[in-house]
Design brief:
This protein has 473 residues and is of the alpha/beta class. It contains 17 helices and 19 strands. The strands form 4 sheets. A 7-stranded mixed beta sheet has the order 4-7-6-5-10-9-8. The protein has a 7-stranded mixed beta sheet with strand order 13-12-14-15-11-16-19, sandwiched between helices. Strands 1-2-3 form a 3-stranded mixed beta sheet. The two termini are 48 Å apart.
């Protein structure tokens, strides 16, 4: 477990903002009614200025520069352009680099940290809102020590440099506590490391806040409240499928229900739900877990992903025997889920009788509200064969500012395509129908393209973000 010896109360840190912390080079800490500030700054006027600013008695505690640098980087992200967007050489102690990097990535709401080595240099990138952003460059001489430290913390073999390795870190410090999935890949010039940050905090996950439109939410909740059948959510990696599943499980989690999950990996821990981590190396696969689940008297089963015909068959079997089964699958559209399962070998008549609802979703980056810029729209920006649903004369484009790390985007929003399976669509499944466009229009069901276009026309995102979805329709 990683841990810091010097800790600060989060409420104390909120006494000042990032600009003030870096301007005065201070870290605040309450001592009764007064405030102590740790600093390496000997400015004689600082005490008087801080007392006027904070309306408290200030006690100055001089400490070393490494201590101040470490905690400024950790607790107060810089608001100036150089700190936020430039590629930096790490200035703190090399002993604390890993802790500081992980804390920074969590603070930036990053999903992954990439550490890469090349012939002449090493770099660290983080994935923010689905896009890679370079944060640090490292001395190549320091890189092996960082790799070994990660291997030790994740229980991996430090002597093995020729084969890929996978591990896990239970990370905690004074502000954060979560799990990290570690993947190490041998490359031409050394080992590349990817750290996937898995948040254990499920308090903010809410089925009413994941992004469903009102009508879609009604269809979805109607389906998940049924006692049996299958709920399938499709989309590429990183499209938010798992978050939607966890929000659903949290909604369904009641004392009267026995809920079992098999996941790879377990990303959130939910009290009251029995969660199992997939371990293929010892034979604990999705189909094996599902067979055992059926002997555990379940009401609801969640399967992390349907990857093969064995998992699909077991999921169908579970739903046929009176259980509600939730899972994900990689397809391009909600109806594509049906085609994929039939191609896997699932009989269409069984699928028609068990599928409650099929959902497709994507995460689209939303424009930074502080720097987005309105311009006249040229219809030539649409894909060549796309017919817009209605006229758009103006649109917003990215500009970039300190607040959004000069990307032009801040945050992401989910868009959905939800198809509840009724009697008419059951017949379509049995007949292996591929095109149900007319049926969706008849039922007033919006496609992914329509929902994405609505997000664009309302000024929340750009044509570049929705372009791949328009191209597919």
């Amino acid at each position: 477990m990683l841990n810091d010896v010097n800790t600060f109360n989060p409420s104390d840190l909120l006494l000042i903002n990032s600009d003030q912390a870096w301007h005065y080079r201070i870290i605040p800490q309450k001592t009764g009614m007064d405030i102590a500030v740790f600093t390496d700054n000997n400015n004689a006027l600082m005490k008087e200025e801080l007392e006027f600013l904070l309306d408290r008695t200030i006690k100055i505690k001089i400490t070393d520069t490494d201590f101040i640098n470490k905690h400024l980087h950790k607790h107060y992200p810089r608001a100036d352009k150089n700190e936020r967007s430039a590629i930096r050489t790490y200035t703190g102690s090399s002993d604390t680099f890993l802790n500081d990097l992980i804390s920074e990535a969590e603070r930036l709401k990053s999903s992954d940290i990439h550490m890469e080595v090349y012939e002449e240099r090493c770099r660290v990138r983080v994935r923010i809102d689905g896009q890679m952003v370079e944060r640090y460059k490292l001395e190549k001489s320091e890189y092996p020590a960082i790799i070994n430290k990660i291997k030790i913390f994740s229980g991996l073999d430090i002597a093995e440099k020729r084969l890929p390795q996978d591990g896990r870190i239970n990370y905690s410090d004074d502000l954060y506590k979560f799990d990290i999935r570690v993947s190490i890949l041998p490359t031409l010039h050394g080992e590349k490391i990817v750290l996937r940050l898995l948040s254990n905090d499920a308090t903010n996950i809410d089925i009413y806040k994941v992004g469903f439109e009102e009508a879609d939410l009604h269809y979805y909740l109607e389906s998940v409240n049924r006692p049996n059948g299958m709920i399938l959510i499709s989309g590429p990696t990183g499209s938010g499928k798992t978050t939607t599943l966890y929000a659903t499980l949290k909604f369904l989690n009641k004392e009267s229900r026995n809920i079992l999950t098999i996941e790879d990996p377990v990303e959130y821990t939910l009290e009251g739900i029995n969660q199992v981590q997939l371990k293929e190396s010892i034979g604990l696969t999705f189909p094996v877990a599902l067979r055992t689940f059926l002997r555990q008297d379940p009401d609801i089963i969640m399967v992390g992903e349907i990857r093969d015909v064995d998992t699909a068959s077991m999921a169908i079997r579970a739903s046929l025997t009176g259980h509600l089964v939730l899972s994900t699958i990689h397809t391009n559209s909600a109806w594509g889920t049906v085609s994929r399962l039939i191609d896997m070998g699932v009989p269409s008549f069984l699928l028609a009788n068990t599928l409650n609802i099929t959902v497709a979703q994507r995460l689209l980056r939303t424009l930074c509200p502080k720097c987005k810029n309105k311009k006249p729209f040229d219809a030539k920006l649409y894909p060549r064969k796309f017919k817009p649903y209605y006229n758009v004369s103006e649109h917003y484009v990215t500009t970039g500012c300190d607040d959004c790390y000069h990307t032009g985007y801040k945050g992401r929003k989910a868009v959905y395509e939800i198809i509840p399976i009724d009697i008419g669509l059951e017949d379509k499944i049995k007949s292996n129908a591929f095109d149900i466009t007319a049926d969706l229009k008849e039922r007033n069901i919006k496609t992914l393209a329509e929902n994405a276009f609505l997000l664009f026309s309302s000024g929340e995102t750009t044509i570049e973000e929705i372009y791949p979805l328009l191209f597919n329709y």
